[in-house]
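Design a sequence for this backbone.
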């Protein structure tokens, strides 16, 4: 029984439509009362283009800037600037976007309204660092490669930034409303895109402890600058959470149940090393298949979250594909289909969003003379699945509510 790619593709399309940034933003914008003054727009993150379009369709925007990871297109509104920033590492354009946003904030008055559209990827795409950009790049890249989780990564980013950690509202007198798509476990507004508009305490000491934990060195001059930098006054801002991983997971559950599969939502707090998480989830699936748990087959399991990968090889892939590859021997020969994908359509340094495995994956790999252990050791999951035509490729989706894992247990639908 080979992977049913039609079912997989239909499922993913249904999930992505459920968290479409344009529709979600539009729905909430209609509830906003128009101000007496002007309306300004600042949008950044992987969903910024669609979120900004919703704002442009509802309000007359005086001036705005949109920082995205997409190829920049000419704006329908000449007063709204589109910039392609760097991701997952910030670049010069990321800094230009943040500085342009600050200029917009500073020209707004008390009676004006600033709409801020925040989504995953914003930490890299929107940045004004306290230290040299090359230093920030090296620190970010090193922490990611050594397996730092998103909370740790963003804690360090906040300490090294003039806009993260609730600092952005201090640049304006105008009222600000932030519309947020969550790409973090727990939907913590202080963490999403490093919480640029959410009032919070930035713990510099903790940031240095994280750097020490992962043995990432910050130049002495940069460390002194960070520690001695006076923090900007923070202000409370209204936040509207428009989409989360839970929304996407429940959409997946709904799709599967429409297909006649009893489904269970395991939550959206899946974290840890990708290959270790595969063992835990795989154990749940196998016990179900063997009728040794309360989850009797046929059944589908849906979960979400964000894992990490400690990169030791020079291969191509990401956390979703690595988890799928680690799952392959667990489901080998069994009536279990498993897929994991990033809702943003980007999994690590690859063209895939994720991958799918089933009970036949290792046998098909053996016939193609592919040893999964070699690919796993080399963090080369993309090339393994690409050779089997089992990658999940969506292209950049324009949305981002972290990752989703789905297993279909004991059903020929897989």
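Sequence:
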């Amino acid at each position: 029984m080979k992977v049913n790619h039609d079912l997989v593709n239909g499922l993913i399309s249904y999930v992505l439509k459920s968290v479409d940034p344009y529709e979600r933003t539009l729905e909430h914008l209609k509830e906003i009362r128009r101000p007496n003054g002007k309306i300004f727009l600042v949008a950044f993150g992987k969903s910024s283009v669609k979120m900004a379009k919703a704002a442009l369709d509802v309000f007359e925007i005086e001036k705005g800037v949109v920082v995205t990871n997409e190829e920049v297109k000419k704006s329908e509104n000449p007063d709204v600037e589109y910039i392609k920033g760097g991701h997952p590492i910030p670049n010069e354009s990321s800094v230009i976007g943040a500085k342009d946003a600050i200029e917009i904030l500073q020209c707004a008055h008390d009676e004006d309204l600033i709409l801020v559209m925040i989504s995953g990827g914003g930490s890299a795409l929107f940045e004004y660092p306290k230290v040299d950009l090359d230093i920030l790049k090296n620190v970010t890249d090193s922490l990611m490669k050594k397996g730092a989780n998103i909370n740790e990564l963003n804690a360090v980013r906040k300490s090294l930034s003039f806009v993260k950690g609730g600092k952005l509202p201090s640049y304006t007198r105008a009222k600000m409303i932030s519309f947020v798509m969550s790409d973090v476990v727990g939907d913590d507004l202080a963490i999403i895109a490093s919480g640029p508009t959410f009032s919070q305490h930035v713990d510099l000491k903790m940031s240095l402890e994280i750097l020490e934990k992962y043995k990432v060195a910050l130049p002495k001059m940069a460390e002194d600058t960070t520690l001695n930098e006076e923090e900007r006054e923070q202000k409370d801002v209204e936040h509207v959470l428009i989409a989360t991983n839970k929304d996407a997971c429940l959409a997946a559950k709904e799709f599967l149940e429409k297909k006649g599969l009893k489904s269970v939502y395991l939550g959206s707090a899946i974290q840890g090393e990708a290959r270790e998480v595969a063992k835990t989830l795989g154990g749940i699936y196998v016990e179900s298949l063997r009728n040794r748990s309360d989850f009797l087959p046929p059944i589908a399991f849906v979960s979400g979250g964000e894992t990490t990968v400690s990169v030791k090889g020079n291969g191509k892939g990401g956390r979703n594909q690595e988890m799928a590859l680690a799952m392959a021997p667990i489901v080998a020969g069994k009536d279990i289909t498993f897929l994991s994908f990033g809702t943003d359509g980007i999994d690590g340094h690859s063209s895939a969003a994720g991958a799918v495995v089933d009970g036949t994956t290792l046998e098909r790999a053996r016939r193609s003379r592919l040893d999964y252990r070699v690919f796993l050791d080399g963090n080369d999951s993309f090339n393994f699945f690409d050779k089997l035509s089992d990658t999940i490729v969506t292209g950049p989706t324009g949305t981002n509510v972290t990752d989703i894992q789905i297993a279909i247990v004991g059903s020929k639908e897989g």
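The longest helix spans residues 92-107.
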